[in-house]
Design a protein that fits this description.
5 helices, 4-stranded antiparallel β-sheet, 4 strands, alpha+beta, 153 residues
């Protein structure tokens, strides 16, 4: 789990540069930020260990892998089966993210699909999971604001 509210000025400089040039080497990051290479190396190791910097997988467009459709499936589940539902969802390859929510629904599931028929199949697999009571699917038409955190730095 990532640290909360503990990013100091050095972290902010380094993270801002990582956003701008994610494939930069330690030497390049040190030069761009004015930090010592050992400082950069230690901070990057800490970011990996504590989850500050997330998986490279987030940057890969599923469309290039043959999954151009993206949808969110809002899901209501039987609460006492929530853990088993999560395990079952993790076994569906087209499920790329599951978020537990509070309020009017329980889960928001991001899925990818090859086409509309494939999306129908994936949504059906989710509905077949023991403990899933109801789903509503919304097709992503376009990305209005991409995932971002730089403005928080």
């Amino acid at each position: 789990m990532a640290r909360t509210g503990l990013a100091d000025r050095t972290d902010r400089r380094l993270l801002r540069e990582l956003i701008r040039t994610p494939a930069a080497t330690i030497v390049a990051l040190a030069e761009a930020t004015g930090l010592a290479r050992n400082t950069v190396r230690a901070r990057l190791a800490r970011y990996d260990q504590d989850g500050t910097v997330r998986s490279f997988q987030r940057r890969i467009d599923p469309g290039v892998l043959g999954y151009p459709l993206s949808a969110y499936i809002v899901t209501s589940v039987t609460q006492r089966k929530l853990d088993r539902v999560g395990e079952s969802l993790a076994a569906i390859p087209e499920v790329v993210e599951v978020l537990g929510l509070s309020g009017i629904t329980d889960l928001m599931i991001r899925v990818v699909a090859r086409d509309a028929d494939d999306l129908y199949r994936v949504a059906g697999r989710i509905l077949d999971v023991d403990g899933v009571k109801r789903t509503t699917t919304g097709l992503v038409m376009r990305e209005m604001v991409p995932y971002r955190v730089e403005q928080l730095l």
